[in-house]
Q: What sequence folds into this?
């Protein structure tokens, strides 16, 4: 199970990098989203994966049964998803605003803040 | 309880300032009052820490290492105090600079949200919580970048957001891996659990991911391009706040993580930090020498100065660490001041492009003198604070007989002087190309007061350096021997 998730994370990183290198702002942001999901998968895999073994503690006992997944990384991912979602919304709005202000979504042509030197 | 105030005050004031944003006067002065309250809370915290040693508190009553810990040693308490000083300075400055529209769009609330994130990052004792505070800081800085609504700041923000989000993802993956290896997120607990496991591959990978993330936050070579692309685009108040605090949170996180959690004895980690620091110094100052825009020169300088601080950490001797910590404090004050002066000067000469400015010395001699103080301090001229900061680092590298590094540090100091003299010659010394009447207006009181106070502070630190070095020494001792820190966190178990 871990190996499938690892490969999936790798595929997501590759796809994200490909999109981010295209030079288009919207694709760049979509690439970032793929990367953030890859990061979430890394944390998911780090917390062990088990099938059909809920991380619950039996009544009266202090530790859960053997061989269950750690629930904390999943809580961390939940936090990260929420934060990532907020950032994604902001980035999309910013991309729209930048496109509106500069008339282009190509990052190479966005040179208002850093104009090319003459000569 | 004392640990909570530096976070609660700015968070609450951010919410209140947003609610009352229609009452322009109330919000502007409320923002100053909240900054003063933050400074007071910081001083109270520092006084307590100096008296009783590191203090820790468990949020929600969960004992460490299960709950979220807030903890302060001398370094983090002092960082909170200095955050308060900068906050007071920039909010007073903002009274004169921030117009009604920008205030209405939430500038003041965002400033305090940023301060909450910064203080949270200094005070947390839990590495995932550190990530959350970084995010608070990041999203507030995104807002501050675009809130003045110009085309230029939209462009700067695209680069800032795009590159900082990658660092954030690296941080998150690093934390995930670290948890997978150790099963804990509490930094004091991590310190114990990683003993003897520093060379394991998973630990090294997480160390490298965190190094990349904090390095990008601190604008280290080679991941610094977001900084000169964006720091000259927002309002001066926001730029001064960013330059003083954001990169320094990165440096603080590097110091904290690479002394408490990871060992610097591992050659891979130490070499990355060392050569990263040296290249950061050199590339930053060369970039500054090539620029002709006032705030962009200052932006590139931040990068080269960050190099000195990380160098102090990477050399890993007590003397070098002392230098890094002293440098951290000195640089926050000096850099914020330089940005504030750039803004005041722009108001009078009409531009930050050095080629089309001039005549400031003849027209406003006081401002010229006030510029010289932080500028010379940054370049390391005695007896100002920057001299002692550079002296400590250079002396530490001489002690290690690292000649190449010593040479680089000294040469970078000279080049800093060169680019500062460029600002001096172009903006202050030479006559204004449009004649002496082109310099208009006076420095408003609200701008003069923070500039003057920060300059005075620079001189005081320079002249009574012994006292401040002693304070930094106490902070260094706690950093290098974190027993008291760990005890404060884990000892509160009962």
A:
């Amino acid at each position: 199970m871990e190996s499938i998730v690892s490969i999936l994370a790798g595929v997501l990183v590759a796809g994200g990098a490909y999109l981010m290198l295209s030079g288009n702002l919207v694709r760049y942001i979509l690439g970032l989203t793929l990367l953030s999901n890859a990061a979430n998968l890394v944390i998911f895999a780090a917390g062990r994966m088990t099938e059909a073994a809920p991380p619950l503690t039996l009544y009266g006992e202090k530790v859960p049964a053997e061989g269950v997944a750690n629930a904390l990384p999943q809580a961390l991912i939940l936090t990260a998803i929420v934060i990532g979602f907020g950032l994604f919304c902001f980035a999309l709005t910013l991309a729209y605003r930048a496109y509106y202000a500069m008339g282009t979504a190509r990052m190479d042509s966005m040179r208002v803040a850093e104009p090319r030197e003459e000569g | 309880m004392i640990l909570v105030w530096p976070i609660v005050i700015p968070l609450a004031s951010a919410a209140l300032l947003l609610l009352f944003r229609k009452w322009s006067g109330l919000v502007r002065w409320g923002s100053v009052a909240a900054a003063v309250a933050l400074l007071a809370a910081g001083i109270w915290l520092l006084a307590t820490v100096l008296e009783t040693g590191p203090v820790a508190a468990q949020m929600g009553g969960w004992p460490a290492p299960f709950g979220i810990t807030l903890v302060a040693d001398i370094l983090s308490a002092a960082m909170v105090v200095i955050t308060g000083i900068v906050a007071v300075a920039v909010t007073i400055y903002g009274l004169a600079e921030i117009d009604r529209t920008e205030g209405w769009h939430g500038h003041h609330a965002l400033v305090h949200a940023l301060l909450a994130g910064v203080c949270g990052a200094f005070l947390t004792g839990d590495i995932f919580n550190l990530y959350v505070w970084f995010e608070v800081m990041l999203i507030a800085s995104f807002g501050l970048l675009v809130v003045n609504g110009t085309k230029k700041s939209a462009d700067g923000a695209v680069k800032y957001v795009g590159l900082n989000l990658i660092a954030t993802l690296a941080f998150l993956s690093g934390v995930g891996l670290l948890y997978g290896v150790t099963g804990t997120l509490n930094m004091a607990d991590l310190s114990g659990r990683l003993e003897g496991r520093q060379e394991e591959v998973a630990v090294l990978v997480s160390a490298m991911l965190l190094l990349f993330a904090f390095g990008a936050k601190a604008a280290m070579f080679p991941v610094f391009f977001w900084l000169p692309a964006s720091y000259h685009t927002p309002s001066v108040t926001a730029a001064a706040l960013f330059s003083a605090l954001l990169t320094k949170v990165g440096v603080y996180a590097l110091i904290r993580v690479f002394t408490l959690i990871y060992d610097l004895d591992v050659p891979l980690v130490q070499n990355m930090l060392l050569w990263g620091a040296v290249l950061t110094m050199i590339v930053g100052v060369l970039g500054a020498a090539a620029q002709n825009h006032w705030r962009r020169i200052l932006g590139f300088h931040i990068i080269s100065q960050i190099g000195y601080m990380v160098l102090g950490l990477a050399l890993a001797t007590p003397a070098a660490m002392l230098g890094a910590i002293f440098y951290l404090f000195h640089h926050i004050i000096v850099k914020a001041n330089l940005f504030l002066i750039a803004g005041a000067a722009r108001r009078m000469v009409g531009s930050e492009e050095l080629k089309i400015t001039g005549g400031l010395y003849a027209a406003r001699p006081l401002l010229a003198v006030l510029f010289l103080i932080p500028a010379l301090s940054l370049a390391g001229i005695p007896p100002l604070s920057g001299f002692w900061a550079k002296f400590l680092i250079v002396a530490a590298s001489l002690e290690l007989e690292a000649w190449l590094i010593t040479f680089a540090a000294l040469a970078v100091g000279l080049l800093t002087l060169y680019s500062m003299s460029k600002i001096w010659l172009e903006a202050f010394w030479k006559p204004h190309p449009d004649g002496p009447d082109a310099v208009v207006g006076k420095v408003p009181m609200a701008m003069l007061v923070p500039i003057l106070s920060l300059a005075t502070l620079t001189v005081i630190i320079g002249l009574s350096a012994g006292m401040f070095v002693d304070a930094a020494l106490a902070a260094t001792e706690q950093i290098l021997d974190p027993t008291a820190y760990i005890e404060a966190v884990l000892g509160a178990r009962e």
